[in-house]
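TASK: fixed-backbone design
INPUT:
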């Protein structure tokens, strides 16, 4: 088994465990509209059509250091268009999501590429 396939299998298992935890939580707690909005920001359906989430494939393909620039570009995109679309709060939240992802990648690559 290739390392890439092994990595993807581990990611899939992790995602499945998160889904199972979420299902249990939903059964125990009422679902609010905010959960739907969170999905639009954190895991949009249009980025989850295949087996793997688009962001994970991009990081895996580009590498963590190059993915930092990808995140930075998306932060700029969402901030710049924020007032030109119908959902400024959602765009700000998406920019925040990419900022958090970029910070995580920066911590993981500190001392390696910069």
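OUTPUT:
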């Amino acid at each position: 088994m290739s390392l890439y396939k092994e990595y993807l299998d581990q990611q899939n298992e992790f995602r499945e465990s998160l889904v199972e935890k979420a299902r249990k939580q939903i059964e125990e707690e009422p679902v609010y509209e905010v959960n739907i909005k969170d999905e639009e920001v954190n895991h949009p359906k249009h980025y989850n059509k295949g087996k793997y989430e688009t962001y994970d494939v991009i990081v895996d393909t580009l590498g963590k250091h190059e993915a930092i620039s990808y995140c930075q570009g998306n932060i700029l995109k969402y901030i710049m268009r924020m007032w030109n679309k119908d959902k400024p709060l959602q765009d700000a939240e998406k920019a925040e999501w990419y900022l958090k992802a970029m910070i995580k990648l920066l911590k993981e690559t500190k001392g390696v590429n910069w």
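COMMENT: Confidence is low (pLDDT under 50) at residues 30-36.
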